[in-house]
Every structure is written in C-alpha cells, then in structure tokens.
Amino acid sequence: MAADAPQTAETSPKVPYGTLEEAKAAFLEQHGSSYGYKGWMEQRWQEEVGDRLGQGQHYLDYTGAAQYTTSMITSIMSELTSCAFGNPHSRNPSSAKSTQEVNLARSLVLQHFNADPEQYYVIFTKGATEGLKMVGEFFPWTAAGSSSSSSSASNFVYTQANHKSVLGIGAYAKRAGAQLHCVSREHMDQWLASPGKSAAALPPMSRSSSSSRRSLSFSSSSRRPSIISANSGTFAGAAADAAAAADVVASVPVSIGAGAGVAAGGMSSSNSSSSNLNSSSGAPTFHLVAFPAKDNYEGQLYPLSWIEQVHAKSDASNTYLVVLDAAAYAATHALDLAAVQPDFVPVSFYKLFGYPTGLGALLVRKEAARQLNKVYFGGGSVDYCTAEDVWHVLSAPPAGLEDGTLGYLNIAALKYGFELLSSLGGMQAVAAHVESLRSWTYQQLAALQHSNGRPLLKLFGRHAEGLANQCAIFQFQVVTPDGDRLPGMLVEAAATAAGLHLRTGCNCNPGRCLANLGITPEEERARAAQGHTGPILVVMRPRTSSIGGRLIFEPPTTTTNTSTTSSSGIKASAASADSPCALRAASGSRSSRGSMAGPSAARQLVPVPLPLGSVRASLGAMSTFEDCFALVRFLALTFTDFEVCEAEVEEGEKIVHVVNDRQRVVEVRATISSAGAAEDLCLLDGSQGTQHAAADATIDEEPGSEECEEGMVLYNMLSYAS
C-alpha cells in the first residue's frame, strides 16, 4: 500500500522548518512526554551509543538490528571476567552456574512476553530463522489421500507480506504434500470473517488476475518471460526454466518411521512406527497459518485478533495452529502472550537490544508442542539412546527441542538487555518513544515535494492511518520531478556518503517488495534465470502497460568534471566514476518507445524499465530526533529540484552571506567566523517566495552551489504551508 505525499497547502503539515535546535524545540513541545525516556536519551545516549557511531553518523536500520549500549557490554565483560561457566550438560560447579543462567533467562523471556510458564516453553535457537525452520520441519503435515479421518491435505496459509524465513516453511509444506495459500491482508480478513470455511476454500492469491497487474509476453518458442538486461541493453529470453529457478528443495524429510517409542514430553519421536501423530484414523488434519505481527518491509501492523479467529476455525477434523513472526514487532512493541496465544512465536534478541547476536527463542504453546514430529536428535535432547539402531527417547521440552550445547555465555548476557529495557520504562515506554518519532518523521517526509508540486517520495505502508496500523518503518522510493523512480542503490550511495545508515533492496520480504516495485513472480524468475543484478529491470510489456518509470538510470562510465544536477534529480560534485558521488550523479536517458510488430496495438510490446529496490529507514529504542531530522534534511537537500543557493553580497564594508537554508546558515556562520569583516547572515524565507535582487552576487565555490541569478526566487528546501 503506497501513499503519495500531499500536494496542497491545505493538507501540508504546518510545522516551520528551521535549524535542528528550532525543529527539536517544536518537536519536544508536542511529544516531550513520550520522547526520550524521561531524560535518559539526553543524559546517557551519547556515551551509551553515540560515541561508537561517530560524529555525523545516523543509524536508521533498527529493523535490521538494534544498537546495544556500552553499559550492557561492560556488565557482560565484567561477569565473564569474574565468573567461571561450564557446559550445562555437566554437573560440576561451573556447569551449575551455566544451568542457573539458562533457567533465569527462560524465566526472563516468559516474563517479558507475559507468557504463562504452564502454557509456553522457551526454546533457545540461533535466531528467529532457526525457530521458523523448526516449525516447518517438525509440523505434522498431512498429504491429500492420507489415512487421516478427513483425507484432506494440510493447508499452509501465509500472508504475502512475510519474511523469507516464514516463506521457507512452505518448502517443508510443499514437500509433504500440503496445499499452499499465499493471501493478501484483505483475503485473510474475508476468510476469517466467513464462518465454517476451511482453508481449502481460500483461493491462492493470483497476481496476474489483479487489475493492477499486466500480462507477460512470451516468445513462441520458450514460453518464458522476455526481459532486457539493464547491463547489456540487449533483448534476451530467459535461459533457464523459471519454475526450476524458484523451487526450494528441502533436504530433510518431515518424518521417518523406524523403531518405537514416544518422547517424554509428549512430542512424536522418529522411533514411532506411525511417527506422524495425525496419520492414525480419527486424528485431525493440522493446518498452519503464518503472519507477521509487524511487517519488516512496509512496517504495517497486523491484527493480533487473527490468532483467536484462526483457532476458531478448528473442529473435530481440522486443527488450525498459528505461527506469529514477532522478530520485528518485539523490538518496538509489547507482546502480551496472556492476551493473545499464538502457537509458535520466533524472536531474535539482537533485534531487541543489539547483543548478543546468534541467539533467539521460539516460544511454543505446550499444547502445540505435543503435535510436533521431531526427526533429528543431538546431544542434550534425548534421555535414552542406543547406537545399534539409533533407538532413542526424546527429552521433555524444552530440552527435547534443543539439540547440542546451548550458547550459554550468550544466554547469560540476556539479563542485561532486559535490565536496559526495564530501566527505560519497559516496552510501553519504547513504543511511545518510537511512535513520537514516527509521527513527526512521517509528517516531514510526506510534505517533501519538488518545485512543480510533485511529491519527492513514494511512501509505502499505512502511515496515514496512525499507530494502530503502522509502525516506525519508512519504506520509500525517491521520485524525480518528472515522476521517475530512482533505484534504491543510488539513494543508498548518497546516504552512505552523508553518514546515514539505511537499508535498500527487498529486505528479505519479496512478496510486498515485488508487488510495490511492479514486478510479477514470472518476471522475477526470469530475472533470476538471467542472473540479472543491475539497478534497473527492463521488461517487455504490451503498449497498454502503465507500470514503471520512464527513465533508465545507468551507472556512469566516465569521470564527471563539474558539479551537476543530473536529469535524475540528484545533486553531485566532481567525482570518479566509481565513487558514491558519481553514482549519485548518474544521468538518466529516455528509453526508446519502440514496439514489436504485431496484428494489433494491444499486442505490441515496449520496454518498461522498473527500478529495483526501495529504501528503508527504520527507528528503534535508541533512535534520536537528530537521526530523523538528518534523514529529512538529507532527502530534501539531495533529491529535490530546489537548490541550496549561497551567495556573497558586498554592501559597503559588509559581506552579506545569503543562504536559503536555515541549517546551512548555522554551518556558514561557523566557517566564516574568523573572516575579519562584519558578517550578516540572512535567511530568505522561501515559503513567502522572497527574491534575492542583488545583481552583484558572487558564488561560493563549494560543491553543490548553484548560481543565484538576479531576481531569482530562493526557495527553502523544506518549506511548509503557513
């Protein structure tokens, strides 16, 4: 879901743009009670986080990973240098210390998510991805025509907006003969609101049937999508079977049937002669529904009420279980597992408090754990075992689901992360802090526009609906004054040079990403078959197609010698061809609008360039107002067609520095404070269209400067309606 920025004065936010200090004062007046954890950010942030980042650096990738605090690491190192830890599978004193820390950590995780220890297990994993893999591997899938009472296949229902790690569950489901249903948010709502309808009634989401999608062109010989390589500029057919390129082959069978026995915790063990618990007559067929609490791509929040609605679909013949991907959600929101009770909840702790990495947890409802079919077993997960026929009895959960020695030193570090969150006021305080920044940043980003009134950004998500449906993820594409979209890598290069830590690409969420970019699954498979990695994908579509921009942006092949503003709308100075600045200055050239011969205009094909990748800026517990201000100012100064204009005007003995950006005024004042002559810094108010009429203006020889002509209207880069 995309939201175009408002273009009228009536809908523009009435926030005066000024210096950082002015903007922050206005922000605090409105959000001071929610921002900063009652002064913690102002007092502690610099020493806890800022000193490590470095001056002028702004971290805006909190959905990728949180930033740990210095005091956390100090506490962890202090404990490691003062205590001895041993393998928790032993029983000596150092091992007992490790076991104590593991048990404490399980309790803290349950407490953090308000999960009843009588209802949930905490299974430690290497991260959310491993937890999701375990769900897919252990789930009791049923193929159509099995000996179950319903004789119907299991259904794996998942929203299009899901992380790749969730989509990977589908590989296990597909291998086991289950039915896959990729559904939109709207389809899920409709299904859950329809009483009595099983998942089998769900239509798979067909992108080609949507009115917003365009049909593909296939050559008569290969029947594969035809695409143009943006690197070579030549037509080429897909060189390999697209379907084969998309197939994911799972190498581990869902279950095996040798030996005898059942795990102590009630889980199915691979020893059982009928190891799939639902394969016996009269047992229900199990179905799995997966969705994220928070979409890691657009930042949409999904209804947690779905969990109860899915469970309500269960009957004597069908049992519906829910996997709630909380990896992104848990970093900025409180998840109350007493209020909602999904069956499987994967999390990664580095997303909560930055450290340790390589450690996560899968919270499993005990009732659901009894249905799992575990095949592999390792050290620590079995109580009895013989070598001759690999007979074994699994340990009761959680140990029975944790193969090998746990990362006990990392687990011991978790308490310091939870202590940090508690000192900030808990997840409710984190959510309020992040929402205050989201609200302000969205208003500023939505108001950015070019001189012709066209929005600077194509913002995805549901920001206009507020915190009930949207979190602090800003997924966007930069749009030129002509309406063309810039490839994400161009924006990323400019952002990196400006000290902004952003993320570009599809963010491991191909469903929403490709939909927003206008790329069909068939085109993506053809792109993979060709090994295409360029910034632009050019596809052949019927002349009636309206998807895509109009410019092809090629990386420069020659060195630029002068400061330019390219036709792609990116300001840059002289730089070598392979530098970030040169990439920012990439010239746009109009694509040819030729067509292929055909019996009718509707069947004539034209090349349609599709810029790949969008840009994600995401906020978290340690985000600052300064980070958000830097993001807004960077986008405005770098990509709008308004110029930051500086001039020196001689008035008698005075040198008047004319600058049309208030933050730049502060910077100029600092650089000329030792000039000797009296200076008078003048801000020209762009919102009023103030004209600079000094005919003898001279130009500051700085990269990015543009000549201020007589009578030229100097616009504020971030002008807002008064």
Automatic annotation (TrEMBL):
SUPFAM superfamilies: PLP-dependent transferases (SSF53383)
Comp. bias (Low complexity): 206-219, 557-572
Pfam families: Aminotran_5
Annotated region (Disordered), positions in chain: 196-219, 553-572
Protein name per Swiss-Prot or TrEMBL: Aminotransferase class V domain-containing protein
Domain of life the protein comes from: Eukaryota
Aminotransferase class V domain span: 58-185, 284-451
Signal peptide stretch: none
Originating species: Tetradesmus obliquus
